[in-house]
Amino acid sequence: MLEAGSFGGWLLTQDGTKFGLTCAHCLPGCLVGNTVASPSTTEITARLDNIIRYTHLCPQSRRLPRSKEREAEVALLKAQYMQLPDNNGVELRDGSKIKLIGPDLGILIAKREHYTPILERHNQLLRSHTRREVCLESAIAQSRLDWAIFKGSESRVLGNLLTSDDFADKQITRLGDIEPGTSVIKIGRTTGQTEGIVNGAALQIWETGALTQEVAVISSSGGTDTGCFATIGDSGSLVVSLADPLEAVGLVVGKNDSGIPRWVAVTPLWAVIEDVERVIGKEVEFCGEV
Fold first, then answer.
1. Considering the entire predicted model, what is its pTM?
2. Which of the ends of the chain has fewer CB neighbours closer than 10 A, N or C?
3. For this UniProt entry, which residues form the secretion signal (predicted)?
4. Measured on CA atoms in the order 276, 14, 129, 266, is the torsion positive or negative?
5. Left if phi > 0, otherwise alpha if psi is -120 to 50, otherwise beta: which for 95?
6. How many CA atoms lie within 13 A of 44 on its CB side?
7. What is the chain's alpha carbon radius of gyration, rounded to the nearest angstrom?
8. Dihedral over Cα of 215, 220, 223, 225: its sign
9. CATH fourth-level superfamily of 112-147+161-269
10. How many CA atoms lie less than 13 Å away from 18 in the CB half-sphere?
11. Which backbone phi and psi does 4 adopt, to 5 degrees?
């Protein structure tokens, strides 16, 4: 990945191909056929740039008091990840610049960012399941679809397992409805596991000249960014309903931290899967056991 994002789970086609899911905006410079790495180039190179200042490898002009712990961590990073010369990379003592490349997660197959009507159909789905509907502004028809899929390296396809302090490799095998009032969680790259509540009214977002309305989740628990369900780097996280059994219900696509409380925009997962099917011409389902 050229940018940092989160992983949304595995999708499965009828022919048995497994695709990893994230957001397209997490891969801005990545073209179809390019390698997706995890951890991302941006993430591990930024970490190297932050800690190398405490080591003998840093140019004298930037060097801070040396730290044995940082020396050891830099050595570990350089041993663990491939190094490539890069003019925008981390500068070393000899004047050269490098970036670090994480291990391959897969090959980018398709990605798409566009606006399309979603939430009226989402309410129809909720209504058919006798669920509570999202309160919408009728004048705003568009919602954001933002997804990318990559063919997973077989050694890294482990199935859709929820793993955190609260869940020990809990399998997620089914889709559910992202319904107002529902308690949900996500596990993201930046904030880890956070819990939230699906809001009763849609979130209105003005972005790149377009006004959209999105399913909104507000935090009901902490996180490393206090009070926020998700933040930068958490895009692409799978949103899971705390039903029994657990249900995959959405994908984190954006945030709005301009006010209090801070909302996170989530796209219903059924809409993402439907759009993926339209683009690749194959039926897709949320992957169960591998």
1. 0.81
2. C
3. none
4. negative
5. left
6. 24
7. 20
8. positive
9. Trypsin-like serine proteases (2.40.10.10)
10. 19
11. -100, 135
pLDDT in tens, the chain (290 residues): 345 688 888 898 888 888 999 999 988 878 898 888 777 777 788 889 989 999 999 999 999 999 999 999 999 998 888 888 988 889 999 999 998 887 777 889 999 999 999 999 999 999 999 999 999 988 788 999 999 999 876 655 666 877 777 777 788 888 999 999 999 999 888 888 899 999 999 988 877 777 889 999 998 864 444 578 888 888 999 999 998 889 999 999 987 666 556 789 999 999 999 999 999 999 999 876 54
Q: What are phi and psi for residue 41, nearest 5 degrees? A: -55, -45
135: Cβ–Cβ under 8 A, 6 or more apart, which residues? 180, 200, 201, 202
Q: Which two tokens stand for residue 144?
A: 């954001």
Nearest to 70 by CA among 85, 88, 56: 56
Q: How far apart are CA 115 and CA 43, in angstroms?
A: 29
Q: Could you give phi then psi for residue 236, rounded to 5 degrees?
A: 95, -10
Task: Please choose, from the candidates 229, 60, 214, the residue with its C-alpha nearest in 3D space to the C-alpha of residue 143.
Answer: 214
Backbone angles phi, psi at 110, to 5 degrees: -165, 155
Which tokens in the block code for residue 197?
A: 């509540």
Block residue for tokens 């396809």? 157
What end-to-end distance do the CA atoms of the chain give, in Å? Answer: 24
Taking the domains of the chain in order of start, what are their residue ranges? 112-147+161-269
